[in-house]
Amino acid sequence: MTGGFYSLAAVFADEPKLTRAFQSGDGVGWGDHSECLFCGTERFFRPGYKAHLVDEWLPALDDVTPKLASGAKVADVGCGHGASTIIMAEAFPSSDFIGIDFHAPSIDHARAAANGQGNLRFAVAKAQDFDGAGFDLVTVFDALHDMGDPVGVASHIRQTLKPDGTLMLVEPLAGDTLEDNLNPVGRIYYAFSTNICVPASLNQPVGTALGAQAGEKRLTEVLKEAGFTRVRRAADTPFNMIIEARP
Ligand SMILES: C[S@@+](CC[C@H](N)C(=O)[O-])C[C@H]1O[C@@H](n2cnc3c(N)ncnc32)[C@H](O)[C@@H]1O
């Protein structure tokens, strides 16, 4: 939890910007926050990825870990500081990974953290139109709800996947109604969502503002609208739900 306090510091530091955004409705871009948000996000999420990603979440997907073990092409979209990308690249040395994020300072940090790992590279690009095709697996960790056009992003991802490829969507755990989320974890997420995730989405074209407590039903609607035909919850932990989507 300690990492989350760095992000909390960013909310207080950015209070004047947030006040203006609440008045104008224009949002606050992810990259327009003070720097502690970026390291705070990594420090908050990384321990969960380290604990669950390789041993629980990836094996919960159909046919994915055998492909990763023998050599697959993977994109991690909205990768931030690259914690998830690096964990996967270290676990599956025969596969090739690219981490993508539109926030250039985060990609600089990810490149430094990767420390020359050979099967891994990072690129500054937008989730809705990044280059590349023929991916076996595309992952999005705690980022789709921050994007302005989640349907457009999911639709672009579907087009970059192989016909038998997989989108792994990691989102905060949430129920489908407000009442379902009135618990300690939901309260933390609603607070961050209101001050960071919703303003980040409103700052981008379309501005869907899913929020960090969108819930499985709403996320499934987004993925189906983007053209995915098979969508299911593959796993969950106290903080995250893992949704598998196939073309
Ligand atoms: C909450 S952070 C999660 C970062 C990382 N996946 C993690 O779990 O630590 C959301 C990330 O989405 C990125 N992002 C938001 N909108 C984006 C877009 N349209 N294209 C690419 N990246 C975007 C932000 O720059 C940020 O790094």
Explained architecture:
- The protein starts with a helix and ends with a strand.
- With 247 residues, it is of the alpha/beta class.
- A 7-stranded mixed β-sheet has the order 3-2-1-4-5-7-6, with helices on both faces.
- The model has no long low-confidence stretch (mean pLDDT 96).
- It contains 9 helices and 7 strands, in the order ααααβαβαββαβααββ.
- Helix content is 45%, strand content 20%.
- The chain has one domain: Vaccinia Virus protein VP39 (Rossmann fold).
- α1 runs antiparallel to α3 and α3 runs parallel beside α5.
- S-adenosylmethionine binds next to α3 and α5.
List the bound ligands: S-adenosylmethionine
The first-level CATH class name: Alpha Beta
Main β-sheet description? 7 strands, mixed
Tell me the number of helical segments per DSSP (H or I, 4 or more residues long): 9
CATH topology: Rossmann fold
Spell out the blueprint of helices and strands.
Blueprint: H1 2-13, H2 15-24, H3 36-57, H4 64-70, E1 73-77, H5 83-91, E2 96-101, H6 104-114, E3 120-124, E4 135-141, H7 150-160, E5 161-172, H8 184-202, H9 216-225, E6 230-236, E7 240-246
Parallel strand pairs: 1-2, 1-4, 2-3, 4-5
Antiparallel strand pairs: 5-7, 6-7
Helix pairs in contact: 1-3, 3-5
The chain binds S-adenosylmethionine.
